[in-house]
């Protein structure tokens, strides 16, 4: 059974994220795993404490009792939503761990191998956020599972136009197939967009590749488009502003250091500032 991993902080925003994850699990015939990470100390260094399950001493504390109550209340409300929405086929479970949020989420994503991770995001609001980014954007740079980042309340059935910004390199066919498969389940149209920087001479090569893709995917609800801008980031931002896709899709892979840092910065910027759902896929070289 496919698992949808949903990290939550028990805030009102988490309910929106959990509702989307529940709808996704229902669509895929899967289950939901809620993950709440308890920060060990506000002053603890970000990489000093590994993720651990709650020990027996922690379970005896009043703070643990309150956290357990809050988590159970969250799960109860999500179960109410599940019943009202007619999604009783979706199993909901929860887990609470102690650790740094980013490291804990990555560890659980690695061990549980979920079909998708679903997270919310908050824009950079102070100097610390601007320096290191939100938890969502940090997870986006390292996670090895498909990741949804939701900027606000989003209903899965409202996603009718996907824009996948493709490099036309690496395991591109696999990524296109993933987006297309999800699009078909949601009855959504997919547009694959490649942005060529002006200073690079790959536009004609990209045109030839997309022509081959157009032939291969002729029977599918998918289109292909090549654009030329000063930078890839400029092209993505301009396209999104002009065409207003319901969801933006990116893929990242391990590659050369300079290129990787550039691509990660683009992902981080979109994760922090996008006003529409962002799906990030892992691409093989």
Automatic annotation (TrEMBL):
Transmembrane segments: none annotated. The lineage of its organism: Bacteria, Pseudomonadati, Bacteroidota, Cytophagia, Cytophagales. Residues 1-150 form the UspA domain. Belongs to the universal stress protein A family. It holds the Pfam family Usp. It comes from the Bacteria. InterPro entries: Rossmann-like_a/b/a_fold, Universal_stress_UspA, UspA. This is UspA domain-containing protein. Signal peptide: none annotated.
